[in-house]
Amino acid sequence: MSKVSEIATTFVAYLKRPDLYPELRRKIWKNIFNRSSGLRGKEEAEKWCKSISISEKDFIENVLKMNFVPFEKKFPQEYENALQAQEKAPVKMGGAGSLSVIYYINEFAKAQNSIETGVAYGWSSFVALASLVSRNGTLYSSDMPYIFAKSK
After folding, report:
1. Sign (positive/negative) of CA torsion 95, 139, 57, 79?
2. Strand, helix or coil at 142?
3. Which residue, among 140, 141, 138, 56, has the nearest Cα to 104 in the 3D structure?
4. Using CA atoms, how far apart are residues 23 and 14, in angstroms rounded to an integer?
C-alpha cells in the first residue's frame, strides 16, 4: 500500500468514528504545525540510550539478582501458540519486546497487581499474566481504540 493510500485509508477510518475526532484533530495539528517536534533531539537521545544500555540478561542477573532463563524458554509451548496467534491476526501491529524483562520485574516485585498501557497484540499482557497467575494477581490494561474496529 502506498503512503498516500495508507494516509487516506486511515483518515476515512477516523471519519467513520466520531468518538475519535479529538485524536484525529490532534494528529492533523501535529503533522501540519509540529512536524519536526517529534524528532527533535532524537540522535542525541539514541546516543545517550546506547551509552547506558545493558542486555536483558545483564539487567535480570545483575540488577534484579535473579537467574535468567529467556521467557520463551520458560514457556515454550505458550510462546509458540502466541506467535501462531499473531501470525493469524488480520491486522499487523508492533510485536513483542523485552518479554523476559516484563516477566522478571513482576517476579522480582512479587507483584499482586500490574498495569500496562498500549496492548496491541497482548504480548506484555501475556508475559505479565504468566507471572501474576502464580500469586492470583490482577493485570490492568489500557489501550487506545483501534481505528479500523467497528464502533458500538
Report:
1. negative
2. strand
3. 56
4. 9
- Is the CB of residue 125 less than 8 Å from the CB of residue 102? no
Is pLDDT of 2 > 80?
no
Distance CA 152, CA 150 (A): 7
List Cα–Cα distances, 133 to 65, 68, 100, in angstroms: 22, 20, 16
**Cell triple for residue 138?**
490482577
Question: Which residues pair with residue 117 across a beta bridge?
Answer: 142
Helices 3-15 and 21-33: angle between axes, nearest 10 degrees: 140
Q: What dihedral angle (degrees, nearest 10) is formed by the CA atoms of 76, 81, 82, 85?
A: 160
Q: What is the pLDDT of residue 149?
A: 56
The pLDDT score that the predictor gives to residue 30 is 81
Whether the CB-CB separation of 20 and 147 falls below 8 Å is answered with yes
Grid coordinates belonging to 80? 509458540
Q: Residue 12 corresponds to which amino acid?
A: V
